[in-house]
Amino acid sequence: MPHSAREPKFSLPDNFIWGAATSAYQIEGAHDKDGKSASIWDVFTRKRRKIRGRENGTIACDHYNRFQEDVNLMAELGLSAYRFSLSWSRLIREDGSVEPRGFDFYKRLLDALHAKNIRPFVTLYHWDLPQYLQKRGGWAKREIIHEFARYTEAVTEHLGGLIDNYIVLNEPMVFLILGYLLGAHAPGKRSLSKFFAASHYALLAQAEAARSLRAAQPKAQIGTSISTTAVYPRSDSERDIQSAERFDTLYNTFYTEPVLGRGYPTAKFSTLKRIEKYIQEGDMEKLRFDFDFWGINNYTRKIVRYSRWVPYAHWRELPTHHEALTNSLGWEVHSEGLYDLLKKFSAYKEIRNLIVTENGFAAEDQLVAGRVQDKERIAYYKDYIAQVLRAKNEGVNVTGYFAWSLLDNFEWAEGYAARFGLVHVDYLTQARRIKDSGYWYRDFIAGKEAL
Ligand code: IFM
Fold first, then answer.
1. Hey, what domains does the chain have and what are their CATH numbers?
2. For residue 411, how far is its CA from the centre of ligand 1 (angstroms)?
3. Which atom of ligand 1 is the closest one to the Cα of 409?
């Protein structure tokens, strides 16, 4: 797509944040450089039959060495913000001391972003726990609360002057269900008791870290990002409705309502009561935090029919429309779901502000004659962004949108085949090429492309 010299045709909401997102393990590579120790993903990807194509993030997009080129691409796209995560195992050594070379890397990245007027949104934890902490039980041990708080303090001490926007956790539901219950993600555990313990401790750690951020940087905006799925029952039958409610509870509200001071939502899903075993006196107060914003990550919806296994298992087999458009991972495209979710979460009186911190489309894109013509992704972005603006126009306090992802990257258990980037990465040469969707996003942000 040629560079557009056209004049803006319309104006977007004032001060709305238009960004793109990534995470450390998915793009950085340099898995053992400059004192970085192994994370649980470095270890998990070595296990057999866990990752499609036996791939891993050892090199990934080599962002560690190419971050300046990537920041230049962000500037070329006209992004006003960039969301990325810090690699804990780059920053804190096993003996608890800090690794200055790791902090230097993020300082250089943050400086490069500021030099281009791109606001950093920094995620503290996007799934890559240091392996030395996993050996001590990881999220399933209460001491993780203290470890996470110490790591957070080191971040504000060394990088705080360069960061105004924090996201504490990325998608607790995903790293806890897939990591501790289903064994599909690192650390590969399959245990109901570990899952409940880890869920409770992750929420306590989240609030403790958020309080430490607020104490160190009272003016910073502090948020956290949740994975969300719009859920609809397949019919009006009581059994379908109840299954959908259980699904909604586990996938949307289990990690939200307690933080808002409403307790664990066990009424609609009694199995969740098992978490009570891990609650100590004072915990329910401690895991509350009044976040400045809630990050909504959304890709798809689920239509749920009754099964006694919903939502524990068969989560991939839940029915979608046969004729529905899906991405290359089989996730149904349903932009109205994002609108419904923004309405749902904004209805909580304790939630002040929402930011869409991830949304995007996976495809097995091909680079043909130097160009990726990803029409389906452009259509996806148009539809989903229209729903975000619809919610905003109706009064929902949503103040930003981050496309997932800036770059094609390591899609966890799915390896590299599913590409989500606005920018294509050739993993053999590390050459970057802006896709048609990237040019579309650039022109849309500049007010030159309508939805
Ligand atoms: O790639 C992931 C990301 O790390 C977390 N949210 C969902 C994305 C797509 O699966």
1. 3-445 (3.20.20.80)
2. 7
3. 1
